[in-house]
Amino acid sequence: MSFKEIKNIKKSYKTLENDDIVKDFLVPVMKLSTSYLRAVGYFSSGALVLLLQGIRELIENGGKIKVITSPQLQENDVLAIVKGYKDREEVAQNAFLTTIQTELENDEYVESYSLLYHLIKHGFLELKIATIQTDRGLGIYHEKIGLLEDETGEMIAFDGSLNETYSAYMENYESINVFCSWKSDFECELVEEKHLDFKRLWDEEHPAVQVSKVEESQFETVIDKIKAPPKWLAEIIESKSIESEEEGFSLPNWLSLRPYQKDAIANWKEHGYRGIFSMATGTGKTLTGLAAAEQLYRDKQKLLGIVIVVPYQHLVTQWVEDIEQFGIQPIIGFSASPQRNWRNQLNSVTRLFNYKTEKDPMSFCFITTNATFRTEAIQKMLRRLKRNVLLIADEAHNLGAEHLQKALLPNAEYRLALSATINRKGDVEGTESLHRYFGDVVMEYSLKDAINSKMLTPYNYYPIPVYLTEDERHEYLSLTRQIARSIIREKSGKIKFTETAKMLLIKRARIVAGAENKLEVLKKEIERYKDDSQILVYCGATTINDPSYVEGVSPEEEVRQIDAVSKMLGNDLGMKVARFTAQENQQERKLLIDTFSKGEHLQVLTAIRCLDEGVNIPSVEKAFILASSTNPKEYVQRRGRVLRLYEGKERADIYDFITLPFSERDSILPEEIASTKSLIVRELKRLEDFASIALNRREAFEVSELIRERYSIEAVDMERKDLV
Q1: Could you tell me which residues come within 8 angstroms of residue 385 by beta carbon, excluding any fewer than 6 positions away?
Q2: I need a labelling partner for 620 at 20 to 30 A (CA). Which of 48, 252, 365, 388 fits?
């Protein structure tokens, strides 16, 4: 809960003028607090009894109290310090304890001092004694400030004449002024200033003020008069006590890092906590990244700000589930975030973080999407952080895009990129920018490594040749000629694609993805499995070239391939099929995955691109890939999705539709071979990549050899960079 829920916080309070500072202000605010800081000239345990209701809830919130106060020095004490007869810290603490001994002679103080003792003993309250010595002599620390913080990082500060004593609250005429961090920039800066002042005192960084901590052992002379803790405190001590060193951000008990994950973290640390984890899909990139962050958190004495950036909202949800296993409650930042006040939380923590030190550490975790990360408001908040910031980028290849490169935080000293395929196809500059920012690849763990170590399922690979129709081939060749006229060849030999060329390339790719013959071949291949389940069909983001496959659609209308496939599987083969696309929301997707995994009411999922990054359906046993882009990132991720481990799953079967321009019956002119060679080479590259680590690699490579022979494709052709 946040302080903002308290609607009637006044700007000032005065005792004896219808204001009850305890009931009207302090107790309501303390109930929502996780921290109460007080620096005063005078402190008495009687104040604790008055604030008991607020203190109890503050402690139940996991909060702590810190108090700095002056001792009540006698004349002899002052002389001893000034003349150097005794250590000032020793005199100050003795004076404080003498006060306790004197007051405990009176039974009315026993309850309050007993409470003080147990709060100190069990770590709920820390008390420090402050003394001042200047060139002019010995002075009294007489400042009177208070600070309270809630779980969202918002703070309230107050100052005035009010000491932390029973008489100040109940008998004296006192006044305080109150400042709230969220109300205005002026108040926020003033709160930060007072918080910084308190920290300087507490951390013994003020040149004129010496502070010393009061330990529970110093109560030994009066321990026989201390009563047992009240029942409510005894219950808290028993159930919660003080947080152990292992609590907070820590590796979950169930997580046992594998050797390659430990090596990744060690290499990253050796490279100054910068680098890239190039790890195959399904090998635990997320957990390795979080374990690396946990290592840095310990190395930086728990003073660390973590910013995690992912491409999509559904990936945020998945990361949050894993992060919470590490004991972190992150700030979740995107348009549909379940945390309505996440922007205010982020604003508060990024302001306060700069004032924290290893003596009084603070950590936070902010997870967001690429789109939200690059907005001006979020960039402004994150760039105010001055040190100990870790940026983790999931599917980091996306951040090489020109519009996202500029968002990469220059103030993030520590950086970690996670990606199965960090290199951006056709974008050397984007790839180089990622390496400049994140550093070298410090861990490479391939699909082959993962399969060999039983982190992923082995697979059979079946390349299925599909041929363009005569009309499709004619249009493909026509577009190829237009593309050749639209590109620019620079003197260096590099090809530059004009906007017209890019548009024509997309149009040509859609012909390949939506080839008419694919549906008939798919029907033939999948029919033998019509009674099976756990089947995934990857479709292209395209229309089919023959809409007659869908009943009731005229030849002039365009039909999405995924719709045609879904209707063919459902109507012709009687299979239970559902689409998994961007049109389904997160709740619908979860229901689809759960139903599909059970295999009872759903046999087949048809999908486009939304399964490429971050959606896990490990139960898939058979995948039919109708269309793949020329980007290895896409087909590497798709293969990784199919190879996830699942109970009872011994292997996966991948059917890959290899689109070729000519069938065995077609006659081919030499110029036609030259014009379609780029298509053949691209399909062969994917085929041979998939085949290289398949269980049936020999069988798969036989298909490759037949295609090479048919189209006279040599190794030199596979290495050419200028094929269009």
Answers
A1: 305, 350, 353, 354, 409, 411, 412
A2: 252
Answer yes or no: do 300 and 379 share one domain: yes
The span from the CA of 419 to the CA of 437, in Å, is 15
Element (H, E) at 147: strand 145-150
d(CA 414, CA 408): 12
The rounded radius of gyration (Å) of the Cα atoms in the chain is 34
Confidence at residue 247, expressed as pLDDT on a 0 to 100 scale:
52
CA distance 458 to 685: 20
Residue type for 226, please? I
Find the CATH number of the domain harbouring 53.
3.30.870.10
Claim to verify: residue 539 and residue 667 sit in the same structural domain = yes
Q: Is 555 exposed, middle or buried (0-12, 13-18, 19+ CB in 10 A)?
A: exposed
Containing domain of residue 679, as a range?
459-465+515-719
Q: Give the residue among 492, 499, 539 at the shortest CA–CA distance from 518.
A: 539
Report how far apart the first and last C-alpha atoms of the chain are (Å, whole number).
59
In a domain? residue 479: no
- Asked whether residue 477 is assigned to any structural domain, the reply reads no
Residue 470: inside a domain: no
- Give CA–CA dist 701/16, Å, rounded: 92
Is-contact 347 152, C-beta < 8 A? Answer: no
Contacts (Cβ under 8 Å, ≥6 apart) of 565: 519, 522, 537, 539, 606, 626
CB distance 551 to 569 below 8 Å: no
Distance between CA atoms of residues 8 and 22, nearest Å: 14
- Pull the structure tokens for residue 109: 């103080």
Q: Read off the pLDDT of residues 69-108 as tens digits, 9 standing for 90 and up.
A: 887 644 443 343 333 434 445 555 566 666 666 666 666 6
3-state secondary structure 481-496: HHHHHHCEECCCCCEE
Token digits for 179?
Answer: 């400042």
What values do phi and psi take at 573, rounded to 5? Answer: -105, -10
**Which of 399, 423, 452 delimits the end of a domain?**
452
In tens, the pLDDT along 415-425 reads 999 998 888 87
Entry pTM: 0.60
